[in-house]
Amino acid sequence: MIGLGDYLGRRAVYSPEALAFVDASKPEPLRLTFAEANERATRVAAALRRLGVTAGDRVAILARDGIEHLDLFFACAKLGALHVPFNWRLHWREQLTILGQIRPRALAFGADFVPTVSAMQETGELDGVQLVHLDPQPVADSLAFADWLATPAPDFVPTPVQPEDIAALIFTGGTTGTPKAAAISHRQIAWNTLNTVIHDLRHGDRYLNVFPLFHTGGLFVYTVPLAILGGTTILVRQFDAAQTLDLIARERVTVFAGVPTMYQMMQAAPNWDTADLSSLRFCTSGGAPLPLPVIEAYRTAKGICFKQGFGMTEFGPGVFALAPEDAERKAGSIGRPNFFVEAAVVDEQGHKLPPDTPGELVLRGPSGSSGYFGNPEATAASRDAEGWFHTGDMARQDAEGYFFIVDRKKDMFISGGENVYPAEIEQALYAHPAVDMCAVVGVPDPKWGEVGVACVVLKPEMTATEPELIAFLRDRLAGYKVPKAVRFFDALPISAAGKLLKRELRERLLGSPNG
Fold first, then answer.
1. Where does the record place the AMP-dependent synthetase/ligase domain (predicted)?
2. pLDDT at 199
3. 320 φ, ψ to 5°?
4. DSSP state, 494?
5. Which residues contact 316 (CB under 8 A, 6 or more apart)?
6. Average pLDDT estimate for 53-68
7. Could you say which of 140, 158, 184 is where a domain stops?
8. What is the DSSP letter of 61?
9. 68 and 163 share a domain?
10. Residues 218 and 212 sit within 8 Å (Cβ to Cβ)
11. How confident is the model at residue 178 (pLDDT cuts 50, 70, 90)?
């Protein structure tokens, strides 16, 4: 079959001089055509083969975003090997745990992580793992990635792959427990691409990627589809709101994707008022419902329309899509399933529920992952006998077929015997003009079992009090849903993917004398 490792070479046949990637993380942005990008990946694949890397082996990378991630990603695919990007935000001891799960043949690392790799070396856990330094800062016995790029490989022949062969291991977010390695097959990547291009992605689009490349959003949402279509992906070291606005103008970006917190941070950036976003055809938001005030602000100030969606590491990542014309009419919805995705809302026994009845969201289709690497128990638990993947998300489907995430199954808490879904409360809070960001978490309570605490960041130069916000919610929600307390923060903890870290927030509250 034509697998991921063939994509750059196939596109280079049709448009070898078209711009494939811009690495804006470099002091001087690096621009690569499809022919150049394919040559780099081929040289890296040949170097890995010289090390003895073969089909099924794992190759890990611990580095901030940059073109080297994609060099290794496509190189591994040419060998039938598995690309494994590490979450660089984790503590090095957590990295060791992941290392033990995947047992890589090689680990490439950036300059920022020399101390991390050195500490890991001292434990002996890296014995037998070939280390590769991406920048001119080696550790003991590491090889230079630059030497790989400098060595031509004219006789390289890719390793054939099959649809079910695994191309990458992407770790789940870990915000609710120990990360698991989702096994992403060549089949899943191809079907996700098909689900994506149906939604008006075009040849020649220019996409600015601000998602971390250890995240499924960074690799698969638009990066791979545009490699097939012949568009351009622009990379940055990590998300920065002001830089993002500047790059959209400078690179004439046509497609941008982010999560709601990113869009709110961009709106609060000092260069928001002067930012030229006229090149954008659309923006995509996922990860959580985009608050209606944000949609309205972008439309009014910049003329931008939003597509919204929903996905996850284990499925897609493109699962649902909400068209711009539905953004306000169906505010809070994740949209309808993508073309090749089946979705349903079921009860605890797996029976489908009627419209507007909350239950667990389940998914089925060819863009699902192959389970969790080295974890057959978790793989078996995630799917039922009929092949439905159980997401752990609570959702409802309205009479028109639009889906709404009610909350994470694990985020739901029970107060006085009633199920409380924080996402519903957060959506109500965002309607208050002074609220910039918010999150609601459940904490133990001797009377009610659990109660909600609203964690709020206010907009600059705006004020609101705890009684004011509680009264505001009482006018909009049932009494048992209204948080018993409001805590104000300068900022909320967010992951590298821009998602709120509710577990960390809950730990802060429980450690607070006022929590």
1. 11-373
2. 87
3. -125, 155
4. B
5. 192, 195, 216, 220, 338, 341, 367
6. 98
7. 184
8. E
9. yes
10. yes
11. low
Residues, the chain: 515
Find the mean pLDDT for residues 70-83: 99
Bridging pattern class, strands 389-397 and 403-408:
antiparallel
pLDDT at position 175 over 50: no
The helix-helix angle for 241-250 and 260-267 (nearest 10°) equals: 80
263 and 385: one domain? yes
Collect all residues with Cβ–Cβ distance below 8 Å to 469 and sequence separation of at least 6.
Answer: 429, 432, 435, 454, 456, 486
Per-residue confidence (pLDDT) for residue 174, from 0 to 100: 43
> Domain residues for 43?
7-20+28-184
Pick the closest to residue 336 from 319, 317, 359 (CA basis).
Answer: 319
Q: How many of the other CB atoms lie within 10 Å of CB of 154?
A: 6
d(CA 119, CA 423): 40
Cα–Cα distance measured from residue 366 to residue 484, given in angstroms and rounded to the nearest whole number: 44
* CATH number of domain containing 457: 3.30.300.30
Q: What percent of the chain has pLDDT over 90?
A: 77
Q: What pLDDT is recorded for position 25?
A: 94
Is the predicted pLDDT of residue 379 greater than 70, yes or no? Answer: yes
Nearest C-alpha neighbor of 290 from the set 268, 255, 263: 263
Of 182, 244, 186, 180, which is closest to residue 210 (Cα–Cα)? 244
State the maximum Cα–Cα separation within the chain, in Å, rounded to a whole number: 72
Helix (H, G, I), strand (E, B) or coil at 327: coil
Domain of residue 276, CATH code: 3.40.50.12780
